[in-house]
C-alpha cells in the first residue's frame, strides 16, 4: 500500500529553526509537496520538489531524496504565525496526491 | 497563483436535508477537480475526482448516491450531500489543477466548507 509518515506534533521556539521530516512509500513518484494548513482553513501551497536536492523559498526550504523516499521542510526564524499543521503529499504514478496526516507545529514564545 | 473559490464557507443543516457545495476555478479552466473531506485532527481524505462532462470517480468506501458530484462546466463542480446525517459533519475541501500554468503540478484549494448537521 501507499504510505506517508510524518511526526504528529512538534514544538519549537520563536526565532528558532525546525525541521519537519516526511518519508514515503508510494506506487511511483511524480513530485512531493508541502502545504501549510491553519486550523479551520484549507491548505496553502508551500513547496514542490521533483528532483533531489534543496529548494529554498524565503524562510522555508524543502529537501528531497528520491532514493531514500525522504523529504524535509525547514522553517527558519520561526514566527508565531507559523503555528499550523504542515502536510506532506506525494503525487503517485497516477498523478494522484497521497496525503500524510500532517504535523502540528506549535511555536512557543 | 490560480484561484479556486468554494461556497459556502460554512453551513448548518438539519438531519435528512441535502446541502450543495460549489467549487469554482476563477481564472483557469479545470477539467479535473478533487473533493476531499477532513475530520478534526486528521489528514485530507480524497472522496472523489470530478471530471468535466463525465461521471465522477469515487474512492473506495464513498457512497456515490449520497455524495453527488456534478462537473457541468470547466469552471464549476458541485458536491451535494444528500440526506445528511450528523456523521457527515466535516470539513469539505475542493481543489483543482491548472494544466496550463507554470504551477501545473500544484493543487489549488478552495477555502473549504464546514458542514454541521444537527
Name some characteristics of this structure.
heterodimer, A: mainly beta, 6-stranded mixed sheet, 11 strands, 0% helix, B: mainly beta, 4-stranded antiparallel sheet
Approximately how much helix is present in the residues of chain B?
Answer: under 10%
Shape type of chain A: globular
State the separation between the terminal residues of chain A, measured CA to CA: 40 Å
Q: Please tell me the overall pLDDT of chain B.
A: 89
Poorly predicted spans of chain B: none
Number of strands of chain A: 11
Looking at how many chains there are and whether they match, the oligomeric state comes to heterodimer
Biggest interface, chains and residues, is:
A-B, 21 and 22 residues
Runs of chain A in which pLDDT lies below 50 for 5 or more consecutive residues are none
Judging from the principal axes of the Cα atoms, what is the shape of chain B? Answer: globular
Q: Please report the number of helical segments of chain A.
A: 0
Please describe what this structure looks like:
The complex is a heterodimer of chains A (109) and B (118). In chain A, 0% of the residues lie in helices and 57% in strands. With 109 residues, chain A is mainly beta. In chain A, the strands form two sheets. In chain A, strands 2, 4, 5, 9, 10 and 11 form a six-stranded mixed sheet that branches. Chain A has a five-stranded antiparallel sheet with strand order 1-3-8-7-6, with no helix packed on it. In chain A, a hairpin with a 4-residue loop joins strand 7 and strand 8. The termini of chain B are far apart. Chain B has 118 residues and is mainly β. Chain B has no helices and eleven strands. Chain B has strands at residues 4-7, 10-13, 19-25, 32-38, 45-51, 57-58, 67-73, 76-81, 90-96, 108-109, 113-117. The mean pLDDT of chain B is 89. In chain B, the strands form two sheets. In chain B, strands 2, 4, 5, 6, 9, 10 and 11 form a seven-stranded mixed sheet that branches. In chain B, strands 1-3-8-7 form a four-stranded antiparallel sheet, with no helix packed on it.
Amino acid at each position: 500500500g501507499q504510505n506517508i509518515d510524518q511526526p504528529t506534533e512538534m514544538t519549537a521556539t520563536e526565532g528558532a529553526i525546525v525541521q519537519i521530516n516526511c518519508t514515503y512509500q508510494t506506487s511511483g513518484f511524480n513530485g512531493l509537496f508541502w502545504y501549510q494548513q491553519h486550523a479551520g482553513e484549507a491548505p496553502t501551497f508551500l513547496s514542490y520538489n521533483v528532483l533531489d536536492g534543496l529548494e529554498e523559498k524565503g524562510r522555508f526550504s524543502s529537501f528531497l531524496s528520491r532514493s531514500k523516499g525522504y523529504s524535509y521542510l525547514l522553517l527558519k526564524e520561526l514566527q508565531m504565525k507559523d503555528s499550523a499543521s504542515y502536510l506532506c503529499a506525494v503525487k503517485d504514478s497516477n498523478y494522484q496526491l497521497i496525503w500524510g496526516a500532517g504535523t502540528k507545529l506549535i511555536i512557543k514564545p | 497563483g490560480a484561484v479556486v473559490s468554494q461556497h459556502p464557507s460554512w453551513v448548518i443543516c438539519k438531519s435528512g436535508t441535502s446541502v450543495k457545495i460549489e467549487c469554482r476555478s476563477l481564472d483557469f479552466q479545470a477539467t479535473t477537480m478533487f473533493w476531499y473531506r477532513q475530520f478534526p485532527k486528521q489528514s485530507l481524505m480524497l472522496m472523489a475526482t470530478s471530471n468535466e462532462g463525465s461521471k465522477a470517480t469515487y474512492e473506495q468506501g464513498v457512497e456515490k448516491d449520497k455524495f453527488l458530484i456534478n462537473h457541468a462546466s470547466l469552471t464549476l463542480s458541485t458536491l451535494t450531500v444528500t440526506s445528511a446525517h450528523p456523521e457527515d459533519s466535516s470539513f469539505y475541501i475542493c481543489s483543482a489543477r491548472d494544466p496550463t500554468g507554470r504551477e501545473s503540478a500544484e493543487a489549488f484549494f478552495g477555502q473549504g466548507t464546514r458542514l454541521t448537521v444537527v
